[in-house]
Automatic annotation (TrEMBL):
Organism: Pseudonocardia lutea
UniProt protein name: NAD-dependent succinate-semialdehyde dehydrogenase
Superkingdom of the organism of origin: Bacteria
Keywords associated with the record: NADP, Oxidoreductase
One Pfam family matching this protein: Aldedh
Similarity comment: Belongs to the aldehyde dehydrogenase family.
Ranges for domain Aldehyde dehydrogenase: 3-451
């Protein structure tokens, strides 16, 4: 895949970039290793001050950075600007809290002073996706660099300007040279980078196939890895739920980032007593959304990331309908220019169809009918994924049974799933392993060293 900016709203390639040569890549890895020897000894309060300066820069330039993201991935300008501000929030959160999270942890051992120290590992490779081109990077970089590691970013090939802008922001905020670097390389270089002795760990957010490849490469080298992969999140609605609120959040979650988010609600599992009403309301609300230029403030849903993304989603929908699903609304991609797909609702999902087994990465909602609570849990767990999920009920017993029964890394009750610095983020099953954010962020890429001082 070429390293290039292609505007999804028009299909026009705006700019292309030459990948790093083998020598250039090698020099950047060496530089990251050298930078680590100094950065690891930088006092925590100095690291925190730099991240506060970076946060201020991001807030000040959010509009400009947001326009770059809109041009490269087609997200609405309002959501792109909000994403940059979210990155600033993450920088401040770890500037304020990482030192306490990484403080020595004492253990009660008679006659000795025993603590666990959290020491940084070294250069960490981050293989990041295009859909949240800033937040995905900062939710790794802020905690990992506050812990004393250095960062090497291999971003998606369709967001080179976002990737370079992130590196530039670190530099202009005053971070020491080479503490954070962007690597403009293709995915074929990832295994070689992981294999370099100087690179000590890797984190990936992306597809299940990419996760398997990175996990295999990291396992071969015995290096720490974190994977955040796909999701087909359940959204369970029971009769006691506030139906207006459930439908409003269903639409907001499914169309977040034009429907291209791992934690979008994708499978709507509704008790049979309210299934017809919910499906009708959901279809009407999705059909009423405005699809158009992501720079237009009246646009609700912009384009998908590429022409291939439209083709894949369209085929998944067509195959699901051919298998027996009901098309409630949508289902016909735009004729162009641009990579548009309409908000779509499918119901009566057949077993084995794409909507049943695959992640639909676009504004397509799939509705299941559940006989009772146990059936809702069964349907929710009938997936190879287990990233997040949300449940809508005001019955305390139902809430607890759903929380215990649904197999996900995250479950939200009467609230749509989200990613925020204060809360751990990650999945189970084929959605990956490891956790990001909260206290897990700074403690992921560290050596938890036991120190025993006899008689201390």
């Amino acid at each position: 895949m070429a390293i290039a900016t292609t505007d999804p709203s028009t299909g026009e390639t705006i700019r292309t970039f030459d990948p790093l040569t083998e020598d250039q890549l090698g020099m950047r890895i060496i530089a990251s290793s050298h930078a680590f020897t100094h950065w690891r000894d930088t006092p925590m309060d100095r690291r925190a001050a730099l991240f506060r300066d970076l946060a201020a820069l991001l807030d000040e330039e959010a509009e400009e950075l947001g326009r770059i993201a809109t041009q490269e991935v087609g997200k609405t300008l309002a959501s792109a600007v909000a994403e940059v501000h979210k990155c600033a929030k993450g920088c401040r959160y770890y500037a304020d809290n990482a030192e306490a999270m990484l403080a020595d942890q004492p253990h009660d051992v008679p006659g000795a002073r025993v603590v666990t120290r959290y020491e940084p590992l070294g250069p960490v490779l981050a293989v990041m996706p295009w859909n949240f081109p800033y937040w995905q990077v900062f939710r790794f970089a802020a905690p990992a660099l506050m812990a004393g590691n250095t960062g090497l970013l291999k971003h998606a090939s369709n967001v080179p300007q976002c990737a370079l802008a992130i590196e530039d922001a670190f530099v202009r905020a005053g971070f020491p040279e080479k503490v954070f670097q962007t690597l403009l390389v293709g995915s074929s270089e990832i295994e070689r980078i992981i294999g370099d002795d100087r690179v000590r760990a890797v984190t990936l957010t992306g597809s299940e196939a990419a996760g398997r490849a990175v996990a295999a490469a990291a396992g071969k080298e015995i290096k720490t890895s974190v994977l955040e992969l796909g999701g087909s999140d359940p959204f369970v609605v029971m009769p006691s739920a506030d139906l207006d609120e459930a439908v409003r959040n269903a639409v907001a979650s499914r169309t977040l980032n034009n429907g291209q988010s791992c934690i979008n609600a994708k499978r709507f599992i509704v008790h049979t007593d309210i299934a017809d009403e919910f499906t009708r309301r959901l279809g009407e609300a999705m059909a009423a959304l405005t699809v158009g230029d992501p720079r237009d403030e009246d646009t609700d849903v912009g384009p998908l990331s590429s022409g291939d993304a439209v083709k894949t989603l369209d085929q998944q929908v067509r195959d699901t309908v051919a298998a027996g699903a009901t098309l409630v609304t949508g289902g016909e991609p735009g004729g162009g220019p641009g990579f548009y797909y309409p908000p779509t609702v499918l119901a009566d999902i057949p077993d084995g169809s794409p909507a049943h087994r695959e992640e639909l990465f676009g504004p397509v909602a799939s509705v299941w009918r559940a006989r009772d609570l146990d059936d809702a849990i069964r349907i929710a767990n009938d997936s190879t994924f287990g990233l997040g999920g949300s449940v809508w009920t005001t019955d305390p017993d139902e809430q607890q049974r759903l929380v215990r029964g649904i197999e996900t890394g995250m479950i939200y009750v009467n609230r749509m799933t989200e990613s925020t610095p204060e809360v751990p983020f990650g999945g189970t099953k084929n959605s990956g392993y490891g956790r990001e954010l909260a206290q897990f962020g700074p403690r992921t890429f560290v050596n938890a060293k036991t120190v025993w001082i006899e008689g201390g």
